[in-house]
Structure formats: structure tokens, C-alpha cells
């Protein structure tokens, strides 16, 4: 504990560092994804990186849940929480732009809520949300988009 205090003045500083490391890991995985000429295939690949489909991503989501709970009562963390929420929403929007003729704001909110909800449920109850089921829900949702 003492060695951590040498690097982090507060628990909030440690939590912010940890969340930034998680975000960097997710960004790195997404950047390493193969290119796909099909925007739907690309969107599904990217979105899958945002779901707890393996132990690494499950740990990331549990960190996110702890961080989010703390950010609700810690103003120093609230800004980073808002920043990451905005980044996820913007990412959902950019994935949807080439895929739908529907109301882009509504479809963005719908996808963002789906990804957040699936991630929370799967992080809290992984036995009820196995990877194949999460993939199935994601594919079903993406197939319901008003098409370009």
C-alpha cells in the first residue's frame, strides 16, 4: 500500500490511472482488428471488443463498474466517467453512420444502451450471458437497423 501512495496521492488518482489503462487496452485491441470493407462486419468486431467475452474483458468491465459507482460520489472521477461515456457514444455513432438511414441520434442511443446494458449484465452475471449469447444479441440488434 505504501508503494502505491508513492505514485498516487489519492485513491481517486489510482482509480483514474486504472481506468485510463483499461481504455488504452480497449483502444489497442480495436486498432489491431483486421480491416473490413463491410461496415456491418467492422461494427460487430468493434462492438464485441466492448463486451466481456473473455476473462480480460470481464475484468475490465468490473473495473468500469467500480469506477462508475465511485464517480457518482467523487467529482474528481465524474469528469473522466463522462469523458469515457461520451467516447463510447461517439464510437457507436461513427459505427452506425454508414449503416443506417434511420434517426442517427436515436439509433446511437439505442446501440449505446444495448452495449452498456449487455456489458453490465454480463459483468455481474457472466453465467447467464455467455459469449455466444452476447454475440447473438449484438447480431440481432444490428440486423434490425433501418438499412442504407
UniProtKB/TrEMBL annotation:
Superkingdom, natural source: Bacteria
Domain BetI-type transcriptional repressor C-terminal: 41-145
One Pfam family it belongs to: TetR_C_6
InterPro entries: BetI_C, Tet_transcr_reg_TetR-rel_C_sf
Name by which UniProt lists this protein: BetI-type transcriptional repressor C-terminal domain-containing protein
Gene3D superfamilies for this protein: Tetracycline Repressor, domain 2 (1.10.357.10)
Organism this protein belongs to: Actinocorallia aurantiaca
Amino acid at each position: 500500500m505504501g508503494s502505491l501512495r508513492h505514485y498516487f496521492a489519492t485513491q481517486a488518482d489510482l482509480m483514474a490511472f486504472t481506468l485510463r489503462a483499461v481504455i488504452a487496452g480497449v483502444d489497442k485491441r480495436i486498432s489491431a482488428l483486421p480491416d473490413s470493407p463491410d461496415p456491418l462486419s467492422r461494427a460487430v468486431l468493434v462492438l464485441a471488443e466492448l463486451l466481456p467475452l473473455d476473462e480480460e474483458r470481464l475484468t475490465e468491465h468490473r473495473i468500469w463498474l467500480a469506477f462508475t459507482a465511485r464517480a457518482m460520489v467523487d467529482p474528481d472521477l465524474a469528469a473522466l466517467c463522462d469523458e469515457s461515456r461520451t467516447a463510447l457514444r461517439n464510437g457507436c455513432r461513427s459505427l452506425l453512420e454508414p449503416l443506417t438511414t434511420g434517426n442517427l441520434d436515436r439509433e446511437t442511443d439505442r446501440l449505446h444502451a444495448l452495449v452498456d446494458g449487455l456489458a453490465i449484465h454480463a459483468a455481474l452475471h457472466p453465467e447467464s450471458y455467455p459469449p455466444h449469447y452476447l454475440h447473438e444479441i449484438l447480431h440481432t440488434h444490428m440486423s434490425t437497423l433501418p438499412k442504407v
